[in-house]
């Protein structure tokens, strides 16, 4: 059995991580991020998960369901609100775009575009939470999956701003990998790099390297019994979620699925089932949350 080593406790890791964060926080850091060269997506992948139109209706009214709790954030949710860190993560990861897409129609499309453009204008600089590598990964994946919905009919100015922000976030994601992300968060960040490599021509050449690093990380983190090294039901859930998304985008791009990915999915599913209570939610231990029973069902079906 592979022993899990939490590098965040080591002196060298904390020193390197602190130095990087100091660099990221400097006012001139944004000028080190590249200008966009891509003006379109190589592919616009489909979202693996279905949205809920009723939630999309609420988002059009400024009401967001974050971590299972409703929040009225108004027309511009990027102003400061009294949200928990997990709720902030949920908001800035943009998974709720699928609900607007499920609702469909011109109003939902305009609302989605307005929210994406509002975020781009509000957060041009590094932020220790909002620009965290795993959150960028999920945000870019959501933007790519729903770009045809909110971006295809947009004007040139929106396209310019969108691809400029995407290029900057993608470059930072590559730099930030390993700054704070260990455990399952590292897998999420690597998933994001693979989305970037598949969807943006500027980053296509990095796909083999990113896939190899992803598979190496899987081998390090998934134990022989199918459990994740952190022994957390939530970590088990999150990694399977990412693996299924990764398998979907590689399939959409007609890229062979690495055997490490297929093997990990097959081994991890029985363990996730074991971690469920009779109500479908997850057990609580090792910093785990209940998670959403319906989403767990979708993962197991997928």
Notes on the protein architecture:
The chain has 302 residues and is mostly helical. The chain has 13 helices and 2 strands, in the order ααββααααααααααα. It has helices at 11-25, 53-60, 85-93, 97-103, 105-122, 133-145, 147-150, 156-176, 183-199, 207-221, 233-252, 259-274, 293-301; strands at 63-66, 69-72. A two-stranded antiparallel ribbon has the order 1-2. A hairpin with a 2-residue loop joins strand 1 and strand 2 (69-72). The two termini are 28 Å apart. The model is unreliable at 1-5 (pLDDT under 50).
> How can the largest sheet be summarized?
2 strands, antiparallel
> Structural class, from secondary structure content?
mainly alpha
Low-confidence runs (pLDDT<50, min 5 residues)? Answer: 1-5
- Tell me the series of helices and strands, N- to C-terminal: HHEEHHHHHHHHHHH
Termini gap: 28 Å
Helix content: 55-70%
Strand order in space, largest sheet: 1-2
Shape: globular
Oligomer classification: single chain
Strand content: under 5%
Number of strands: 2
Rg is 19 Å
Average pLDDT for all residues: 88
Number of helices: 13
List the main descriptive attributes of the protein structure presented here.
single chain; 302 residues; two-stranded antiparallel sheet; 13 helices
In short:
The protein is an all-alpha fold.
What is the topology?
Blueprint: H1 11-25, H2 53-60, E1 63-66, E2 69-72, H3 85-93, H4 97-103, H5 105-122, H6 133-145, H7 147-150, H8 156-176, H9 183-199, H10 207-221, H11 233-252, H12 259-274, H13 293-301
Antiparallel strand pairs: 1-2
């Amino acid at each position: 059995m592979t022993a899990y080593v939490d590098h965040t406790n080591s002196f060298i890791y904390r020193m390197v991580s602190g130095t990087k964060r100091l660099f990221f926080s400097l006012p001139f850091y944004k000028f080190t991020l590249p200008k966009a060269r891509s003006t379109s997506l190589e592919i616009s992948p489909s979202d693996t998960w279905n949205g809920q139109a009723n939630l999309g209706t609420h988002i059009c009214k400024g009401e967001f369901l974050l971590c299972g709790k409703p929040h009225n954030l108004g027309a511009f949710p990027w102003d400061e609100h009294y949200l928990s860190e997990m709720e902030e993560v949920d908001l800035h990861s943009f998974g709720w775009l699928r609900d607007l897409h499920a609702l469909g129609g011109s109003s939902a499309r305009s609302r989605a575009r307005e929210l994406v453009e509002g975020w781009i204008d509000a957060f041009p600089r590094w932020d220790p939470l909002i620009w965290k590598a795993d959150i960028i990964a999920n945000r870019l994946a959501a933007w790519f999956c729903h770009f045809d919905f909110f971006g295809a009919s947009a004007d040139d100015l929106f396209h310019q701003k969108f691809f400029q922000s995407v290029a900057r976030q993608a470059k930072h994601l590559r730099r930030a990998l390993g700054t704070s992300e260990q455990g399952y968060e590292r897998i999420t960040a690597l998933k994001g790099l693979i989305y970037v490599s598949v969807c943006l021509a500027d980053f296509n050449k990095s796909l083999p390297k990113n896939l190899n690093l992803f598979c190496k990380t899987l081998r390090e983190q998934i134990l022989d019994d199918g459990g994740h090294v952190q022994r957390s039901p939530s970590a088990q859930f999150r990694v399977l979620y990412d693996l299924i998304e990764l398998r979907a985008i590689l399939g959409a791009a007609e890229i062979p699925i690495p055997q490490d990915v297929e093997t990990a999915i097959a081994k991890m599913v029985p363990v996730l089932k074991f971690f469920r209570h009779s109500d479908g939610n997850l057990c609580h231990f090792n910093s785990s949350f209940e998670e959403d029973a319906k989403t767990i069902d979708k993962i197991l079906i997928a």
